[in-house]
Amino acid sequence: MSPCSPVPPPIPTGRPPNGPRSSDALDQSVGCSQRKKSPDELLCSTKAARTHPCGESGDGRDAGLRLHVGPTVRDDYIRLLLSDDHVPYYVVTAGNWTIQFCDTATGQEAARELGGVVVDHTTGK
Prior knowledge:
Elements: H1 21-30, E1 33-37, E2 42-45, E3 63-67, H2 71-83, E4 89-94, E5 97-101, H3 104-114, E6 117-121
Antiparallel strand pairs: 1-2, 2-3, 3-5, 4-5, 4-6
């Protein structure tokens, strides 16, 4: 999928369920420690964050999990992410959830293990 594409690819249903167990599924896949909840997102550190830190916050959190009320809201959120070209990141999505990563390999591993797809968004360099 190109960074300019207005429509995300067909999205599979994926494994993580609604609710708190979603973060547990992420934890079993690529790790989800140092959890920090906000009203819209759960931020956490994957196993890769120890050796490949990213972001300007310096807190080590490199994954953001969001649950969406439905596929339309999820797709709108993905379109919003794709319209922002200041930072490369990788979105794994399926069903009603998205996880934003800054590390390609971590995103690919999570997609494989959680039954999702990677929406690769990188800046044009």
